[in-house]
Amino acid sequence: MSWNATVLTLYPEMFPGPLGVSLAGRALGEGLWALETVQIRDFATDKHRSVDDTPAGGGAGMVMRADVLAAAVDDVLQRRPEAPMLAMTPRGTTLTQTLVRDLATGPGLSVLCGRFEGIDERLFEARPIIPVSIGDYVLSGGETAAITLLDACIRLLPGVMGAPSSGEEESFEADLLEYPHYTRPYEWEGRTIPEVLRSGDHAKIAAWRKARAEADTRSRRPDLMERHGDAPRQSPSGARQENEG
Ligand code: 6GU
Predict the structure, then answer these.
(1) Is the backbone of residue 159 left (phi > 0), alpha (psi -120 to 50) or beta?
(2) Which of 1, 43, 185, 202 is buried deepest, with most CB atoms within 10 A?
(3) At what angle do helices 97-105 and 142-154 cross, to 10 degrees?
(4) Measured in angstroms, how far is the CA atom of residue 114 from the centroid of ligand 1?
(5) Domain with CATH 1.10.1270.20 in the chain
(6) Is the peptide bond before 180 cis (omega within 30 degrees of 0)?
(7) CA 9, CA 145: separation in Å to the nearest integer?
(8) Which tens digit of pLDDT belongs to each residue from 53-67?
(9) Which of 95, 91, 121, 123 is nearest to 109 (CA)?
(10) Among 11, 96, 117, 139, which residue has the most ligand 1 atoms within 8 Å of its CB, making it the best to mutate?
């Protein structure tokens, strides 16, 4: 049985989109995961098939109606009770690799894509829906966020990535950014590849990569470094640096 994604959206034509090519696309073709889209508008009840209305209290834009969304959500929950129901909204908790791993390990997921100014809050009170954001910026809708979430899950599914271990060392799997990469040519625009990487000394290479991962995380993502547990500064060469603290 494959990992199943059900996407509730006003724009089913956005799927599979980028998930139809490369790694995810090949896996889709091989049946390693499956995609179903549900047109939210099919659950509207009035003759204009309306899915949104003006915001209570006034303000710009439109709000997605709880009654229409609940009908769509209930249909999916009834057919797929085992799959967690997420909603993509900038008001959600931020997506992390930990949640991605949890979701990829399960039977799949259902994901409601928000549009307009937002979703009537009563939907979240009345149904078991996990609100998820992909970061602190605003997209025009939840569809591209859902594609991002699905991409992150799909690449972790058994059989999707070439080498099963190639997901383990990279960014965030150890709460650190990944170390930098280099390939041929050895010299490019006067810049050479760090000598240690050509040494063949695997212990030395591993130590250099760990030191660079920590140094780069410290300078680019101090928030991540804090969570990781800020260790004494080491230069990538292994020598202790001066002026600590
Ligand atoms: Cl999930 N939706 C929208 N519309 N904007 C976002 C987002 C989601 N995550 C970050 N920005």
Answers:
(1) left
(2) 43
(3) 70
(4) 8
(5) 169-245
(6) no
(7) 12
(8) 999 999 999 999 999
(9) 95
(10) 139
Per-residue pLDDT of 95-120, as tens digits, reads 999 999 999 999 999 999 998 899 99
Question: Is the CATH number of domain 3-154 3.40.1190.20?
Answer: no
CA–centroid distance, residue 141 to ligand 1 (Å): 6
**CA proximity to 2, closest of 162, 157, 155:** 157
**Ligand 1: lining residues by beta carbon, under 6 Å:** 88-90, 114, 133-135, 137-139, 141-142, 145
How far, in Å, from the CA of 112 to the mean position of ligand 1? 12
Instruction: Say which CATH topology domain 169-245 has.
Output: Trp Operon Repressor; Chain A (1.10.1270)
Q: Where in the chain is the domain with CATH 3.40.1280.10?
A: 3-154
